[in-house]
Every structure is written in C-alpha cells, then in structure tokens.
Model the fold of this input.
Amino acid sequence: MNDILPQNAVIWQYLEGTVRRVLQQYGYGEIRLPIVEYTDLFKRSIGEVTDIVEKEMYTFEDRNGERLTLRPEGTAGCVRAGEENGLLYNQIQRLWYAGPMFRYEKPQKGRYRQFHQIGVETFGMGGPDIDAELIIMTARLWRELGLADQVTLQLNSLGSNEARAEFRAALVDYLTLHFDQLDEDSQRRLESNPLRVLDSKNEGTQAVLKAAPSLQDYLDQESQQHFSQLKSLLDAAGVAYEINPNLVRGLDYYSKTVFEWVTTALGAQGTVCAGGRYDGLVEQLGGKATPAVGFAMGIERLVLLLEASDVTAHLSVAPDCYVISEDSLQGILLSELLRNQIPRLKVQCHCGGGKIKKQIKKADDSGARIALLIGESEARNQQVTIKFLRETREQECIPQSELQSHLAQYLKNQE
Ligand code: ATP
Ligand code: MG
Done:
C-alpha cells in the first residue's frame, strides 16, 4: 500500500481530471460507493473459485460478527447500490466511480495491495452499440492523455453461459489428455475454473493450448451476431483491435464481449483497462434481469505510463510566484489581491518571517519562477520588486497597481 506524494499526485490529478472530462462528454454520472461491503456480495458476484475470492480478499468480522470485505473491485458494489436505490430495472444508466480497491497479492511493479481504479458501468442496454461506445470512449481517453500509441485493444467474446459451459467441457476433455504438460496452477484450475487455464503465462501450457478447442467455435448465434456487429462499429469508428481468443477475465460474471487495453511498457502487468458485458449479474444478485457492460482502469499502471511520457513533464506542485515581505501583513495582503485578480495563479506567501535573504532562498527552493518582494522601501512607495528566479534577467521594481497586468503578460509569454 503506497503513499502518493505531492509531486506524484499532480500526475494523478491530471489523469483523473482528463478522465472526468471525457466521461462528462459522454453523459456519465458519478456514483460514490462505500469501500466495505458484505463478504457474501463478492463471493456471489466475482465467483467462489476465482483468484480474488480464493486468496486475495481482505476480510474481517466487525464488532457485531458481520463478515465484511474491503472491496477488491467496484462492479459488485455498484450493482448492489443500483439495486438498493432503484436505479436499474427498466432504466438506462451510465455510471462511473473512482477509488481504492484492495487485493492481497504479491506486490510488484504495477501490482499493489491497495490500488486504485476508475470504473464505468452501464445498465439497461443490451446491444453491441453501447459496447462500442464504451470502447470508443476509452480510445478517446488515450488520445486525450497522450497515450494512444502505447496501448492496443484486445477483444473477445465469451458467448452465452450455455455456450461457455459446452466449451468448458470440451476444453477440460482436451486438457485432461495433456495434464502432465500443464503447469501446477493450470492443473489445479483444470478442476476449479478451467477457463482460467487459457490465461496462463506458462510456456508449456501455452504450447498445449495452441491445439486446444477454441471458444469461438462454440459461440451461440446471438453472441456471434453481437460480436460481429461490435467489430463493424469499431471498424467504422476507426478503432483498431486484435482478436484474442484466449482472453478470459478473472471474474465469473462476464458473458459476450470482453476487452482489455494492454501495453508492452510495464512488463507482465500490461493490462491498463479491462472490462466486458455482464448481462447475468444483476439477476444473480437478486434483481430483475438487466443487461450491463462496463470496465475498470488501473490508475497506478496509467500513472506509470504517464510518468515515462513527456506529456506530464510540465506538471509540478511549484507555485508560480513566491511572495516575500519585511512585514508579513504586506505579503499576505498582496497575495490575497493577486489570488483575486488572477485566480489561476499559484501564489505561495512566505510565512514565518526571517531576513529577506533567507526568504529569497526559500523562494528559490519552492521552485517558483518569480519572487515578489515588498521590502521597507517598496512598502513605503506602494511598489513591489519582481525577481526572476529561473532566468538571468534584471529584477524590476514597479508600482503594485501595475502588478496584475505585468504578471498576466508574463504568464502569457511563458505559455
Ligand atoms: P491482472 O490480470 O493484471 O491481475 P485483473 O484481471 O485481476 O488484472 P481487473 O480485476 O480486471 O484486473 O482490474 C482492472 C484493472 O485494474 C487491471 O487491468 C489493472 O490495470 C488494475 N489492477 C488490478 N489489480 C491490480 C493490482 N493489484 N494493482 C494495481 N492495479 C491492478
Ligand atoms: Mg489479478
């Protein structure tokens, strides 16, 4: 579990701000959900035989003996909230949320025990058009963030529950014949959750999978049609994708469309955004059948990509100007005036007194581009001295009344 310090938080803010803007463009509403839910909710939605439920949940009993879990993902809680608040049945919803998720995993680059997601869930739309809209929206987001050339889209269809059950049986038959060539994890999964074997990174298992039956051959007609319409929509919108027949998700509730945006820049933790359709989940959790599709982005992984790119090079916590004064009242009043006059200006006012020379050192340390100084003579004459801290340029002493236009011009030149 990581601390996020101010110089890193500016990248988070850039990311979150951009996502929020794009979601607004598409008419999404924010939903804020609790971090703790009943353990049972996750067992019933994610599935008992998944990595998350088997070994990754932070579960505890509260004082009343209730079994609670720190949410490992957001979809289950979102469906629970939608159901409790009457948002789902017979309605169209486009919702999003952001916040921490918790999984007891082996920490490594791009994989943490408290991590953060921005999740998007839509309800009441069963056609391929909303699947396409979601994916097109994520493609826009990568463009806005300057990450478009770093991620690629993988697509698959899991078909209906019945189609998947048929495929699962065929897969188990095939893999059983090659049991000895499978890695240990896959041998175990063959019993508990055979579709997850498709996801194995083990080379031996991958080799066996080359000749395995393919889910595509088992797709029911409706899923096939849904999938081909989705592909046409993406083609028309100019969103490139790769069909990955082995793309299955680590959660049980998906059907039909699944997708992942992946990058090669982060080693094994390459998925930055993953989602799909889960038409059965609302009913499974006790509501009336409601089609649904959504995705979640891993913020830490996107931040890692952003850190390595020049788009965020200009982001900084440093103030634009640092205000220094002999008499601190002068400094505070000038700072307030500037914040009124130029609201986007970041003004840091020196607090704690001290000699002017020491204050100038602090101004320099702050990273500010300019220091504004009101010494004794400036105070007497209603003036202010502008010192340029990041360029070789003579300081200027001007009337305080001219400072606003002076700074506005300076900022304009810097852009
Ligand atoms: P992975 O295959 O990488 O373990 P997952 O299938 O478990 O991912 P999802 O539950 O689909 O992940 O979560 C969506 C996204 O959240 C992932 O694509 C990833 O970007 C991010 N994510 C998942 N687990 C973690 C983690 N432990 N630390 C950081 N980010 C994570
Ligand atoms: Mg995982």
User: Anything to note?
Assistant: The longest strand covers residues 93-102. Residues 172 and 190 are 7 Å apart (CA to CA). Residues 73, 103, 105, 110-112, 115, 117, 249-250, 269, 271-272, 274, 296, 298, 300-301 surround adenosine-5'-triphosphate (ligand 1) (CB under 6 Å). The longest helix spans residues 6-25.
